[in-house]
């Protein structure tokens, strides 16, 4: 016990300088700052990337790909598929089931034209599903597809075609025949509402209409009808849910999970995240290695003290352990500061982004105001730090305790590892050689 107290006393003496030991040693202070500044972006990147991936994935599952999808390999009428969907709703594993026909068309109005993904859904698609209501927010108008000419479009499409609720929109669809001929069909709609999922990359081409209308304007050979299924626990293993749904369906029906439907997207997310983490981890490794150089400097500065301690009876192992503890204290201090700062910044990232955008837009406006007095400038939109076309409007933050534990453990392990060489060097100091020189 006395030896342990002595080791910690020596470590704190090395860790600080000054007669009263109230100030931190400058070489170690640099290491602590380096570890702190390197851990902050690592923690922020991990939490924000997890939140972005989870946010995009949840939006995709709840509004587009569903948790499970099933469709017949043979021809079935929409009425038959609706009947099957009603049967699936009775399963305890199923939260909701709805029929949807998906296809493509060309939307045009007086404001322009653009390709559109037609989503013909049941009338209660929006009102009966809490997941849909959570992630599809109506910016203008209502989600109303109660009539044959009603249509609800995405924010990006409305912006491109300069459409508002009440405006007319035409959609060109058609049917290809076996002889290569194409029979066009133009359908007029009235825009009832404009929506957004908060992620333009997902909804930029969507247009919702009634299931009957979509079935009438979309050819069977150029569209597909599915039953979208929502389960109770989509992120758990869906094996039991798949078996339950399969047993409730007739033969020759295909069934797919959201993971298989979005495999390429998820792989892309994971690869990007791992690359970012790898780059940030390298920075942390470099910062932690600075502990080694700091301790080398301390060993050189405190050679006289080490020599005196050895003359007073301190063993080489005691000196080595005291420097190892010093390196560990340095790592702990930097790790705690960096991790806590990273978590706080992650939790406040939306406010930080909004503040940075406000400051930058103010500076841009001031520059345009001043420069516009001398040279003509073109009109430009507001600056966005995270463009909503590629990122979420609001960054969700997911704090993962297990990842924090891994970061802290790895940093402390590297701190001890980088401290081992200078600690052993301190233990090998020969007191007689040092004292003869002084």
From TrEMBL:
Record's InterPro entries? Answer: ABC3_permease_C, Lipoprotein-release_system, MacB_PCD
Question: Which GO CC terms are listed, alphabetically?
Answer: plasma membrane protein complex
Residue stretches spanning the membrane: 28-49, 275-300, 320-347, 359-377, 404-423
Tell me the keywords, alphabetical order.
Cell membrane, Lipoprotein, Membrane, Transmembrane, Transmembrane helix
Q: What is its main location?
A: membrane
Keyword check for Glycoprotein, yes or no. no
The reply to whether Metal-binding figures as a keyword in the UniProt entry is: no
Chain ranges of the ABC3 transporter permease C-terminal domain: 277-430
Classify the source by domain of life: Bacteria
Q: What GO biological process terms are annotated to this protein in UniProt? A: lipoprotein localization to outer membrane
Compartments, as annotated in UniProt: Cell membrane
Question: Per the record, a Pfam family?
Answer: MacB_PCD
The way this protein sits in the membrane is described as:
Multi-pass membrane protein
Q: What start-end ranges are recorded for coiled-coil regions in this protein?
A: none
Q: Where is the MacB-like periplasmic core domain?
A: 31-218
Name the family the entry cites: Belongs to the ABC-4 integral membrane protein family. LolC/E subfamily.
Protein's recorded name: Lipoprotein-releasing system permease protein
């Amino acid at each position: 016990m006395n030896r342990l107290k002595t080791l910690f006393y020596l470590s704190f003496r090395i860790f600080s300088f000054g007669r009263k030991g109230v100030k931190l040693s400058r070489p170690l202070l640099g290491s602590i700052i380096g570890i702190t500044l390197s851990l902050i972006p690592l923690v922020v990147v991990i939490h924000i990337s997890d939140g972005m991936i989870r946010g995009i994935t949840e939006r995709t599952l709840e509004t587009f790909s569903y948790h499970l999808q099933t469709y017949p390999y043979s021809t079935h009428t929409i009425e038959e598929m609706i009947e099957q969907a009603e049967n699936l709703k009775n399963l305890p594993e199923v939260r909701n089931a709805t029929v949807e026909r998906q296809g493509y068309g060309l939307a045009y109005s007086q404001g322009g034209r653009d390709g559109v993904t037609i989503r013909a859904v049941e009338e209660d698609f929006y009102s009966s599903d809490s997941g849909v209501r959570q992630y599809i927010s109506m910016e203008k108008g209502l989600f109303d597809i109660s009539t044959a000419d009603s249509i609800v479009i995405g924010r990006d499409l409305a912006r491109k075609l300069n459409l508002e609720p009440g405006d007319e929109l035409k959609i060109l669809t058609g049917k290809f025949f076996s002889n290569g001929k194409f029979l066009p069909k133009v359908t007029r709609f009235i825009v009832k509402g404009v929506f957004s999922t908060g992620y333009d990359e997902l909804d930029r081409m969507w247009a919702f209409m009634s299931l009957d209308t979509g079935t009438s304007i979309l050819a069977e050979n150029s569209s597909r009808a599915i039953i979208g299924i929502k389960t109770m626990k989509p992120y758990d293993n869906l094996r039991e849910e798949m078996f339950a749904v399969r047993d409730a369906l007739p033969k020759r029906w295909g069934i797919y999970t959201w993971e298989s439907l979005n495999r390429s997207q998820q792989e892309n997310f994971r690869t990007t995240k791992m690359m970012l983490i790898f780059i940030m981890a390298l920075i942390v490794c470099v910062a932690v290695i600075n502990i080694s150089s700091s301790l080398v400097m301390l060993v050189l500065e405190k050679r006289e003290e080490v020599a005196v301690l050895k003359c007073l009876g301190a063993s080489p192992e005691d000196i080595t352990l005291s420097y190892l503890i010093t390196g560990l204290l340095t790592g702990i201090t930097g790790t705690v500061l960096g991790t806590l700062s990273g978590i706080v910044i992650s939790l406040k990232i939306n406010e930080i982004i909004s503040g940075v955008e406000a400051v930058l837009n103010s500076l841009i406006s001031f520059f345009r105001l001043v420069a516009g007095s001398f040279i003509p400038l073109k009109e430009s939109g507001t600056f966005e730090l995270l463009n909503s076309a590629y990122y979420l409007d609001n960054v969700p933050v997911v704090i993962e305790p297990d990842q924090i534990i891994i970061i802290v453990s790895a940093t402390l392990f590297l701190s001890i590892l980088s401290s081992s060489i200078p600690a052993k060097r301190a233990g090998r100091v020969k007191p007689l050689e040092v004292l003869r020189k002084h």
